[in-house]
Write a structure and sequence with these properties.
heterodimer, A: mainly alpha, 0% strand, rod-shaped, B: mainly alpha, 7 helices
Chain lengths: 136, 193
């Protein structure tokens, strides 16, 4: 492995003395965080403790108000709007199809009713003609 | 009734005292290990703001898991592991790109031997431009002085994989810094160019 096998067996932190390794250890030396770091961590911990002591609805509200809601509603708003529009369109299409079907059914029933009435009238006339022909 | 009240008060007082003691121990742990956690973030991300955010998140998570920490060694292992994984996650989540790629990085050809400060900064940037896995392996190896076996446990990798990452990273860095390095000088600045 390009000489790394030998290095792996050295005690912790030991290096080959190769300039690059020495310079890397120098360049990657630990550095201090900002002065207020510990104070800031403790403040965050205290805030979290106080929040966890609240009832669930208060926590939920503070999450929403502080935009810390896990789902981040605003991020999902466009997708949600698209889904609502798509579903609305599909429901509207289905509704239109039902209305058209009902209208066709009514037209058919009306046509049948007219046909029935015409047939009845015609039958009555035929009967009338036959009766008058039978009479001397 | 009064006896019960007194017992309740005593229990409450003991709980408060225990909480305070826990917080004091936790604060001490933050103080002792903050530079280690912050430095992993800094060397990996090369962004002080992000490194601080990462370090704070790690310690907040530590507080949440405080009851599960069994010893100082366990604490150190836990902090290194969580810091490393969080740093990688942060880069992936934010799709943060290194400031420059190793291929695009200009080599300081004009200097035969680079000045220490310049070299330090150059190497930091080179490390920050390495691929994620190689970068974290290099940071843990040279910042923390860890052996490949220890790094493999922290990163949940095979030892051979860690060695491969380290070798590849060193090869890349070696190629970029060829002829620009000289052995580390003593603190007194002996042999300065």
């Amino acid at each position: 492995m390009n000489g790394f096998e030998e290095q792996g067996s050295r005690p912790s932190g030991g290096r080959s003395g190769e300039p690059l390794e020495e310079q890397l250890a120098n360049a990657l030396a630990r550095c201090e965080p900002p002065a207020e770091f510990t104070k800031n961590v403790l403040a965050r911990v205290a805030e979290l403790d106080a929040r966890s002591a609240q009832p669930w609805y208060a926590r939920l509200w503070s999450n929403i108000a502080g935009n810390r809601f896990p789902l981040r509603p605003l991020r999902w708003a466009p997708a949600l709007a698209a889904i609502v529009l798509l579903a609305g369109g599909m429901v509207y299409q289905e509704h239109e199809r039902t209305v058209q079907g009902l209208r066709a059914k009514q037209q058919l029933l009306e046509a049948l009713r007219i046909t029935n009435a015409t047939l009845r009238e015609t039958g009555a006339r035929v009967a009338q003609v036959e009766t008058s022909r039978d009479q001397p | 009734m009064e006896g019960t009240q007194a017992l309740q008060n005593m229990a409450m007082g003991q709980m408060a005292a225990a909480q305070e003691a826990t917080l004091a121990t936790f604060a001490d742990a933050v103080e002792r290990h903050k530079s280690m956690v912050f430095s992993i973030g800094w060397h990996f991300l090369r962004d002080r703001g992000l490194a601080e955010e990462l370090a704070q998140d790690v310690f907040v998570e530590l507080h949440r898991n405080w009851a599960g920490i069994r010893s100082d060694d366990h604490l150190l292992f836990w902090l290194r592991k969580v810091s490393s994984h969080r740093a990688i996650d942060l880069v992936r989540k934010r799709k943060a790109r290194p400031e420059l790629s190793l291929e695009a990085a200009a080599e300081p050809t004009t200097l035969e031997k680079m000045h220490d400060t310049m070299l330090k900064s150059y190497l930091e940037r080179m490390v920050a431009a390495l691929p994620e896995k190689q970068r974290i392996a290099i940071v843990l190896r040279y910042q923390e002085g860890l052996e490949p076996g220890e790094i493999s446990k922290l990163l949940n990798m095979n030892v051979s994989t860690v060695k491969t990452h380290l070798t590849r990273a060193l090869d890349l860095l070696r190629a970029k810094t060829a002829g620009k390095l000289q052995p580390q000088r003593s603190a007194k600045g002996e042999g300065k160019v």
